[in-house]
Write a structure and sequence with these properties.
heterodimer; A: 172 residues; mainly alpha; two-stranded antiparallel ribbon; 6 helices; B: 97 residues
Chain lengths: 172, 97
């Protein structure tokens, strides 16, 4: 394992610890870790179609969040994984020519973008978990107005239920 | 010969399923009926227009390219149906106003 992968795993553990009181967040961290570890093993084993396998794993996480996610922050996670799938798709597509200009995603850019999306997802999970911890503390000793209360108020809006339900829960 | 054909069929089916799953990731339907409609259209049109993609983009008949062509056809069919449904709904809302 290289230092980036170790850092990401430490980040996953940190996000998991911060969101101890959110069982579904734990589940998503576990799913994300699996979607990160399996493609890494695949690549290390020098098996073919590595980006396609990564794409498949990310798409699996995306669909799992779509079907089982209940709150707004989970919809945010779903969007992040959509971006990750799109990144793998663009890398797989190879050179893309638009009005004479050729765009080609290099391997370094591809890996960096995947890392970015993973960190962003961990930040969302960790942020929601942290806001829950802080909210509990604020309610315990609520004396006067605290500047962070507004921020916590906006973050706790992420904990409300999602607007668009998955299709299998719709009546028609 | 039979094994070759089986391989080709597996590649086509894999492509269509992959394209449909990808379309579901990027463009989920609003209802179960929408899901079944889109899936049916993506599978049928994916199988019909997959060879058109291979011919149009002059792809070699290898398993990878067959998967890509059929996935692209299925994905585009699903997405086109989603866009058409959204457009019809929008026109309907405008008429109601």
């Amino acid at each position: 394992m290289n230092e980036f992968q170790i850092a990401l795993l430490i980040g996953a553990v940190a996000a998991s610890l911060l969101s101890m009181q959110l069982p579904r967040a734990q589940l998503w961290v576990l799913t994300m870790t699996a979607a990160f570890v399996f493609p890494t093993i695949w690549q290390r084993a020098d098996l073919p179609f590595h980006p396609a396998f990564t794409l498949g794993c990310d798409a699996g996480v995306c669909l799992a969040i779509y079907f089982f996610g209940r709150e707004k922050w989970e919809v945010g996670l779903y969007r992040i994984f959509q971006a990750s799938v799109l990144t793998s798709l663009l890398f797989l597509a190879g050179p893309i020519e638009v009005f004479g200009t050729v765009f080609l995603m290099g391997n370094y850019v591809y890996v960096a973008m995947l890392e970015f999306w993973n960190w962003l997802a961990l930040l969302v999970i960790g942020g929601v978990g942290l806001s829950e911890i802080l909210k509990g503390r604020v309610h315990e000793n609520s004396s006067g107005h605290w500047w962070g209360a507004d921020l916590l108020g906006s973050v706790s809006a992420w904990r409300t239920s999602r607007q668009a339900q998955p299709f299998h829960k719709m009546s028609k | 010969m039979i094994i070759e054909n089986v391989g080709e069929i597996i590649a086509k089916v894999t492509g269509v399923i992959a394209g449909t799953a990808l379309a579901l990731v990027f463009n989920p339907p609003d209802s179960r009926r929408g899901f079944f409609q889109r899936s049916f259209v993506a599978i049928v049109f994916g199988l019909v227009f997959g060879p058109v993609f291979i011919w149009k983009f002059e792809m070699p008949m290898t398993a990878e390219y067959i998967v890509v062509a059929f996935a692209a056809a299925a994905f585009l069919s699903w997405s086109t149906l989603s866009v058409a449904a959204a457009a019809v709904e929008k026109i309907g809302i405008k008429k109601d106003k």
